[in-house]
Model the fold of this input.
Amino acid sequence: MDSALATLLATKLGERLLLPVRQRFDETEIRVSIAHATETLRILHDDPILEFEMLIDLCGVDTGEEMQVVYHLSSSRSSDWLRLIVPGLERNAPRIASATSIWPGAEWMEREAYDMFGIIFEGNRDLRRIYMPDDYRSFPLRKDFYLADDASRSPAAGVRNMERAGTPQDATPATALRRTTGA
Amino acid sequence: MPQQTRPSLDDPRISIPAGSEWYEPAPTPQTERQAEFLTLKDGEMFVNMGPQHPSTHGVLRVVIKIDGEKVVDLDPVLGYLHRGVEKLCENADYHQAICYTDPLEYVSSLFCEAAPVAAFEKLMEVDVPRRAQYIRVLTMELNRIASHTLFQGWMALDLGGLTPILWSFIERDEIVDMLAALTGQKLLYNYYRIGGVNGDLNHEFMSRLGTWMSRAAAQIDSNLGLINENELFVRRTRGLGVLDAKTALRMGVTGPNLRSTGVPYDLRRDRPYLVYPELEFDIPTRTEGDSLARYLVRIDEIKQSIRIIDQVLHEMPDGPVMAKLPRLIRPRPGRAFGAVEGPRGVYGTYAISDGTDQPFRMRIHDPSFVHLQLVGPLTRGNLIADTMAVMASLDPVMGGVDK
Amino acid sequence: MSGAALVWARLTPAGRILAVLLPVLAVGGALTTALLIVFGGAIAATIGANLPIVRFLAASVITFLITVPTAFLLIYMEMKIIALMNLRIGPDRIGPAGAVMSIVHGLKVLMKEDYTPPSVDVPVFTLAPVVVYLASFMTVMVIPFAPELTSVGLELGLLYFFAIGGLGVVGLMMAGWSSFNKYSLLGGIRAAAQAISYEIPLTLSVVGIVILTGTLSLPKIVAAQSGSLLDWFIFRQPLAAIIFFIAITAEANRTPFDNTEADQEIVAGFATEYSGMRFGFFFFAEYVNVFIVSALFSAVFLGGSNAPLVLPFHPEIIINLGSLGIMLPILAGIAPVIGTLVCAAPIWFASSRIKTWQALVAGFLIFGGLSTAAIGFWAWAMIPALGNLIWFLIKTFSLVFVFVWMRGTLPRARIDQLMGFAWKWLLPASLLNIFATALAVLLTTSGGN
Amino acid sequence: MARIPGSGLVRGMALTLTRFFQPKRTVMYPEVKPDIPPRNRGRLELVTDEHGALKCETCFQCAQACPIECIDMGGTDTKGRFAVHWGPAEQYAERREESALRRSGRTVSDAAAAQGSSIDITAVDATLEQFDYDPHAMLGILEGIQAAYGYLPVDALKRVSRATGAWYAMVYGTATFYRHLRFEPGRTRSIAICRCAPCLAAGTGRVAGTLTAEFNTELGRAIPWSNLRLETLPGHLAEAPSPLVVIDGEQQRDLNARNVETWTAALAGRYAA
Done:
């Protein structure tokens, strides 16, 4: 881990950081709020010193209480992975600005996050199911979605709960269309 | 559908009547992009390629909008191979999770094991014995060679050549038998363990490896002589699907596809893991960024991998191949991102531990998933045949794409 | 149970077949003999009266009958040769070295379900394979296997060949359009475009030879190449030969020009919706086409049925078998035994480790080889057509091998590169060839008088 | 690659033509089967001892302990109706199998014990009486039984196990531990094969190979289901011809280098019965 990157990030991002920069192994981790997510990504991407040009990974996380969107960035300047965590998406209507304006390659990863968690990325032109069929209703990777054999292991909660997995209000594809087209 | 002067086969006036049992209503667009894709202009029509198609590597379905032979637009449809591996991993303990990630990319499954194992080792804060690290490098490079040789056969096959695929399968089979002698399995070696590898090098593996190393380079070179300078092959791939460095970075491309655009980004150099910093090898790059460059970069990587294997065999230390660890892996709560440089790009695994014996969240990043986005932009305006050439040169494996 | 039923129940299957067959044969034979006795003179008179029609019918039937075995042979060649080039063994289970494999393929195709998808244009869909196969086997009729073995010695043979060969594309178009499948449509259109582009250099490339020989009849073109090796047109018209070879490769839809059934791009092209024997017709027609174009090339450029080297002598062996009289059957009976023993004796004496039966088997093989060679030489000496036919087939099948070899080696050309090549390079080259030939002919003739 | 156009094609064609004549790499599968690598973690099967009884205790601990659920025990249920693939140990019929019960020290139902007694076990009872059913005197009990029967019948061992309360595993282990205790009647006929260089050259290697293959055993190991024992002769006897094979101490004269196959076949046929 290089501590120079930590200080640099602290100076560059300043008050946008929700928590101080954390470093463990070869990973540097910062947390910003939903409001600052896009401009933080923009800074990280455009800044001539940081130049985190590569979006290695984008994924959603369901902690049980809230939703998170986690970006893993890579820069030729530092030998560290930069992990940007955007916490605090409420589970019923998770919504965050899309990163496709900066990285067009994030489109499918956002589609996957929407498919698996129901997170709506505003500004993604093609936000629809990518793995699951279009008429699928629930979001498999949420914590309240039980697997069949998981159900068999825990007789109390299982197949019964499988189908009424939490579906956030207006997280359906139609509303995604409305959001993205501004209709 | 707008009134058309040149009717296409998707025109309801000449297509299957709505009454018949074969009638399928047109899908309703869900997003802006899909709506734009589903509107047909004059004389355009959809061709549905896959899920069962000779040249989609795995079960990929691509809906192509063509005007004559020209590809106007293209929309890959995924999910035919979706197993929900991430969910399965969240419901299994750490060893079982490795077992699940194994069949993700069946062409180079050792890398699919290496990424989660790296992440779990970070979580467990365990140091892998040096011999185990060397063995991992050795097996991974062997697997890389197997994947690349198979790729060059695939590439030739998708361009219509019958023979190279079989020759490259001969090469691949030798490596696969080698790894089977070492790991016990032929395709899904479940060989890496948290903190080491499953078993030490055995004699059969070493003897097979020795005989193979003695003639691998020459054999692979002579195989390449079939198509590398073939005018038909070169004319079909040069200048096709050109990808420039900036676009590649913005699209999140990694691996040989990125190096073919001139960006020398390779985790083995930029994010050193295992014993790669101590080994001496080059990062082959090209600047053209077209299909031919993507092909040739992989060919050069085969030679570099043989170099690496040679060094590893000379510097292999003695010692244990497994670190001392409890039987039940129960890491401290935390997050870790492990990544390795595979034959197709960066295989990443983002693991969150909540202190139990099961990963709380396990995100698997597969490069083929990202690279498949490029098929649309790179083939727009080319011919149908070029779709195959571009897809083959991007070298996606649907097992990894669909997770 | 009556007696007949009892007998029938006792019979074995073979016995039942015979019991049915023998009476039928007896009655049929009796009837035919009676008919011949009654109307024989009339039939013979009719046949003699319009011999050309009979000859034409016989020729067409024979050509139709030889196309299918040819297709089988070519399919087997393709499977085996490409397998060997792939470092595989290829078919080796059915028959010696898997030689019967292609026939089994044919039976499989016959036994498959013949499925007509919904919403296809049924009459056109059904007719298309027939058209393709007809076009390919009608061209066989003008091929000069040997001076005496040309079924129809048309005066316009070359023209007829190109015309009928071009007809096959109509069948492909019919298949492509009628089967209501976009892949099929693309395949059919590709076939049409490719054929149209390559008919022109194909036809123009032989104009030089037509100028030289002054005829369109294939036997006469072959006759014009009689003589030494250097009289072949491949040496007198090399550019034309190259153009012609490329053009016929495209005409027969062979790799690297097999865009019409490029299975990596458009699944099976025009044949996507076909199954069973209807697909089999396409399949056979493809291989018959390969045979035909190779035959045409060897006839036009490789001297057809002419031997590459003209032997100074032609042996005349006069054996009047009838003069042997009663000795003939005796000789035929004992000659093999004596020959076998004679050939076996030296081997048997050669080493004590060779057992007697081994020596006998070897002797029998040697004698068989010798006698076969002798009979072959005798036949070649007595029937000149046989030697010509053998030369012709050698040339043709070596060309077939070249086609298969190319398929085993080369990747496929893209459709637009294919077209561009035809129009930008082959057409001007063939025109250039025509002008050069005409100029040369003009100069030589004017120099002559 | 700015060279003569078509040279690449020509090179490719030449390469395929050379490959056309090279040796082929096909593996004729049904005849030639690839060897399973020694580390293969494929299907596990329950092994049985030489009496055809299960060696496995079906304790299911292996299946529970395997970290990657690679071991997965299955079987038929206790009523023999369904194939159970995953479930509690109690519902497997294999678990009720007699020797499994006995080896795992569980009580064997009398039916299971009674159905096996094919010999009259009065002598066994007498011996047990003499040793006062004391499992600690197991060696004495077994020696007494062998003295009575000439060997150790399996049913006698079962009887001992039930009477003394010792686990069958313990009885069986004791019986197999001591060399002089036998499971097979009669005295062991020993075939000693000389493996010195001249003998091997003269063909004793083929003798050994044929016999081991015939009796499915190895040199120096008793064949429990027959009273035959293949051994390696410690040293070549003095002034003995090659090849040398000694059966029960007498060297075989009628064996010579030429009739090795026929002689061995005859020997195997003689002892197979």
Notes: Chain A has six helices and seven strands. The beta strands of chain A are 22-24, 27-31, 54-62, 66-74, 81-90, 95-97, 120-122. Chains A and C do not touch (no CB pair under 8 Å). Residues 34-46 of chain A form the longest helix (13 residues).
